[in-house]
Design a protein that fits this description.
- It is a single chain.
- The chain has 288 residues and is α/β, with parallel strands linked by helices.
- The chain has 13 helices and eight strands.
- The chain is globular.
């Protein structure tokens, strides 16, 4: 299919770009980005996280102090910086990050009057020669121009959905935006999957909502659900993904299973073991 935007196709050597997006806040978007990336990288896949949220929570989740976030996503989109010039390693082998910077908070206003404003992130990835198997973009909790940039740059989107009464409310706006992006900018954009978060098996409402979501999205919904787990909540305050904070907790186990499911969907090598695997345990201890 030809691209109606007239943009050249992405170079074949670049990684698969997946934006993690939901316009509602507090649904586990950043938590999913950080821990899914960690689970995939911990077993040998090369991953880049792009913190495109001005709040910078993904950067915090990897223990990067705000004072150390000099060049990041803003410079990528506005200053012509190449990925390889601003990327930085994390505690996890094979996992790298482009941090959010303080200037990103004003990016929305600047984008309004910028030329080719929808393509800033896409063109930045095209300039990069750095190769990753996966590039995960943590989007702001709104359908703004930064999120639009991520959708135009991405191959697919992953939607974290909190298992609550209002889970499906507002998703129609997101789906309409996706269709508009497909029509005008990125015809190959697809929904990679929907992941249910903050699941509480003690609450009967959780099962009812999960069933509704599965009826609506069908096979797009991952079998793995992310439970409510205090260790997941504690990990960011220690500057660590939950896999480094407590590998054997239910939350870490769930993200490893989710990574395995994602790799299967992406037709990649299925290398995700359970928490008792000695190689994974060694990797996590070294990172910690």
């Amino acid at each position: 299919m030809s691209d109606p935007s007239g943009q050249p196709p992405f170079p074949s050597e670049r990684g698969r770009v997946i934006c993690v997006v939901n316009q509602k806040g507090g649904v586990g978007k950043t938590t999913t980005t950080v821990n899914l990336a960690t689970a995939i990288a911990a077993v040998g896949h090369k991953v880049l996280v792009v913190d495109a949220d001005p709040q910078g929570n993904a950067s915090t989740g990897f223990g990067i102090p705000r004072a150390d976030r000099t060049k990041g996503c803003y410079e990528l989109m506005f200053d012509g910086a190449a990925v390889e010039d601003i990327v930085r390693p994390t505690l996890v082998p094979n996992l790298f990050i482009i941090t959010s910077s303080v200037d990103l908070a004003g990016a929305e206003i600047q984008l309004v009057t910028s030329e080719r404003r929808e393509y800033r992130m896409r063109e930045a990835f095209e300039r990069s020669r750095k190769e990753y198997e996966f590039i995960l973009i943590d989007c702001p909790p709104s359908l703004n121009l930064i999120t639009l940039n991520a959708l135009v740059a991405a191959d697919a989107l992953l939607v974290p959905l909190q298992v609550e009464f209002y889970a499906l409310e507002g998703l129609s706006n997101l789906l309409q935006t996706v269709e508009a992006v497909r029509t005008r900018f990125n015809p190959s954009l697809e929904i990679q999957g929907v992941v249910l978060t903050m699941y509480d098996k003690r609450n009967g409402l959780s099962d009812a909502v999960a069933n509704d979501v599965r009826a609506y999205f069908g096979e797009k919904v991952y079998e793995t659900v992310i439970p409510r787990n205090v260790r997941i909540s504690e990990a960011p305050s220690h500057g660590k993904p939950v896999l480094l904070y407590d590998l054997k907790c239910p939350g870490a186990q769930a993200y490893m299973r989710l990574a395995s499911e994602m790799l299967k969907r992406e037709n990649r090598d299925i290398l995700v073991p359970d928490a008792d695997d000695s190689d994974l345990d060694t990797t996590v201890r070294q990172a910690s």
